[in-house]
Design a protein that fits this description.
heterodimer; A: alpha+beta; Ubiquitin-like (UB roll); 5-stranded mixed sheet; 2 helices; 19% helix; B: alpha+beta; Aldehyde Ferredoxin Oxidoreductase,  A, domain 1; Aldehyde Ferredoxin Oxidoreductase Protein, subunit A, domain 2; Aldehyde Ferredoxin Oxidoreductase Protein, subunit A, domain 3; 3 domains; 6-stranded mixed sheet; 4-stranded mixed sheet; 17 strands; 38% helix
Amino acid sequence: MITVRLPSTLRVGPGDTLDVTDHVATIAQLIDVLDRRIPGFREQLDDSVFNFAVNDEMLLYRARDRQLADGDTVEIVPTISGG
Amino acid sequence: MCTRDRVGRLVSELPQAPQYPTQGATLFVDLERREVRRGYTPMRVVHGLLAGRGANMFYLHRLLDESLHPLHPEIPLIFGSGVLTGIVPSAARGNASSWSPESGVLMDSNAGDYFPSFIRMNGIDHLVLFGEASMWTLLHIRDGQLAFVDAVRYVGLDNIDLRQRIPNDFGGTWTRDLAMVNITRAGENLVLTSAIMAGPKACYARGGPGAKMGSLKLKAIVVQGQTRDFETAQPYKGYNRTIAQKLLDTSVVKHALKTTGTPFLYKPSRMLGAMGTKNHQETTWTDRLDAEHITPYRPGMAGCFRCPVNCRPLNELTPDPADKYGRGDGPEYVTLGKFGPNVGIDRIEPVIRLNNICNDLGLDTASTGSTIAWAMELYQRGLVTRHDTDGLDLTWGNAETVEQLLFKMAARDGFGSTLADGTRAVERGGYPADALKYRMAVKGLMQSDPHDARILKAFALGLAVATRGMDHLRNRVTLEINARINDDPAFKARLYGGPVGAAPNSYDGKERAVRVCENVYAIGDSVGMCRFTTKLFNSPSLPGLEEFANQIGNVTGLEIAPEQLDTIGHNVMGVERLINYRLGVRREHDTLPDRWFDEPVTVGAYAGEKIDRGEFDRMLSRFYEISDLDESGVPRPEWRNELERVLGAPYN
């Protein structure tokens, strides 16, 4: 199972944590699964403001190819670049 | 030749009427003699450097006498608003420029709120201030006229109290028909990390502008008048709506800036292991400072003149009105980082309180927080002891001590006077020479932001080459932190005009991205646009050179193509480097603190990462090559000749 933490800024309905029990090997596959579950999810994610973190490790490139394992926690992190 | 004579000769060269619709005058204010002269920026300068920061550099180049010292009253302090300031949504900014008393190199600090727009409403684009007033003075601007007012009654007032007094004494209402820039006790006491306040929080922060203004015995500039529409070359409000919509449709504005503000950035920085912690000895910190923990204390958001974004978080720690620091504006991400991880504080409440105190005391939170973190590391290492600190315990995370240090700094009381010398504490005898090894500064300026740039090489290069010292707001390739962009090499190459390595820790092509950002941001400052809403800083889809060119055409009637704006941005950097050269800056100053070359990051996916000296030097050489800089870091002869034609020769 993959635990997915979502920011409040993504409009996906109530709750900010989803459990994904389907077999997913990569972030790209995880997005496919979530898009089937939440219509429009892929479109919302197609936005440079959102980064992925796996087990608190922020992915800055090759994000969608990142391998996932059972028990991983994936967090979608809105990222302001400047400040 | 004294500055008064230089000004006299310069004014004799300047046009005495506006050169394009909406152009405001440049007022040369002799504080010693209480005299004002005026002129207008000539067209060759407008075509070469535009207005705002760009034209400020023209005036500084012509009037600077580098044989003096930064706090000498003959060294001018120059305010300038952008060519679109006060007219275009989110263009509310202006720059304050001089010779920095903190860094010893160029001082050029940017702020928004209402002052830069309100001076334009009074027909003024630039204020060139020089000479020491015989008594503390306030300048009052109304209906385009400037009056000198005795300010002795305001001496000793910090920001909160002064902002309460001024409407009572002059009439008017903040944000409606009244704006001000002012210094606090910190500026009066020539604290080198002091700011010129431009609002409850907004300030010209970097490089010690407060001390520079204090050296002229100028307490404040109060501006009054009704806001108005400008008479422009062509209709412009339709395109203003296009720009506003572009701002509001941008994801980062919708998802973060408008709702939470910049503290959003804390979380990605700490997760990346790039959060400057304990003076950058460590690089990650607690999740208890994530932006969501500020939310309970955030009653709303505020913003600058005619900005639809409103990105400034307000705070309320307590409803008790007797607690002066129980509410305020901010904190921004910079303050959160500097007064959280960098001094070892792990609770949000003291961070917010320290933010409110800094805003009242008129202290640049970036340099002040870094200065205290430096002192804490010296204390940790035994280079500073309780004997030096007036008995205070500078252990990491001691928020009570940090609060006391802020008040001691502003008053230059005891150890506070050493801290008030900022990066110059060793030079002025406050610390032993060994202390310099732990000073996180470049070109004499403490780092602006809390990000630790050992991982992201483009960030590192930007901090090294920034003309005002170690500062991310001059050229940061911020989109390096966005995986969606890094994973689309074709899109990334289009953004930066050529290939830029996808990996954040790669050195490949990063010089190209820094060059592009430096040009765009210099133009942003010269038109008056906020950095947060300028293309490439927070998003690739915000207004950039094309939108600026269109609206400059509508507002001023000047036809300046986007490519020409890019050249002007490059020119601004070139002139800043010429000024820095006169102040002793050379290639060896385009570097980074030794810690980042010598000590690797120890946590996270990039553990082991540091800056490789050889790779950095080659990246710097490539940056010089594409920037048309010679081995000393100044424009090569052909470009230099062109810049000198625009500028005219400095007076000797």
